[in-house]
């Protein structure tokens, strides 16, 4: 197949969601509390359908199982990555995700959840929780037991264009007024430390997972500081934001035209501007909010226009 795979987004309502996925990206959202767009996903809890070409109507999950040549014949039972756009109108719960070993042992799932965030937009004074102040696991458990949340969690101010690497075991929360693009392992396992004692429309609180949260947390916390590298190819400025065990992530800024060889299958999301992509005889218009995969079966593609994209692929061993 010498074409891209374009996808229909999967939209998910959340107690903390808002309206920016509709207002800023033009998605058809189910309500004004829509928190997540799953733009590229093969996960059983939400897999995208192709909207173009010979595989129109097929899901990523179906293509992974039946057409592995599109993905470099990469091994594994599950499509490995998941790309989201998150609109946090309210604070997300303070949470932690397990690593692969813990996920397999306690949840029976192939992947833990290491992720990364690129800040697309934010309200003034918006903040994240990233890490904690406990020096030992015993101190962490004691502070949680006493409800010393303000002393325990570390807050970080955000700016548009900030990038954060959030490996499994990192205590974290996306704060209110933040819109991010998240690239992560394809896992939906979340352990909640704290949810601000809030209730849903029926007056119910959400479950907490204190024992699992404490067991999975990195102690003491260490900030991840991935090395970044920038270069230019014709009209395309590329910044490699991170290269780690599960994914390599890039920020692309296009102003003009660039032609590139296909070396691996690549996940891409347009986060600003508009343009087009041509592979072989196929040309597609791209605008903010578009998500697509350049498959491994393509040989070369050309990008034209003025747009910003986030791109990623699995990291070769």
TrEMBL record:
> Gene encoding it?
manA
Q: Which residues are noted in the entry as Zn(2+)-binding?
A: 97, 115, 172
Q: Where is the active site?
A: 192
Q: Could you name the domain of life of the organism this protein comes from?
A: Bacteria
Q: Which PANTHER family match?
A: FRUCTOKINASE, TRANSCRIPTIONAL REPRESSOR MPRA
Q: Which CDD domains match?
A: cupin_PMI_type_I_N_bac
Q: What is this protein called?
A: Mannose-6-phosphate isomerase
Q: Which GO terms describe its molecular function?
A: mannose-6-phosphate isomerase activity; zinc ion binding
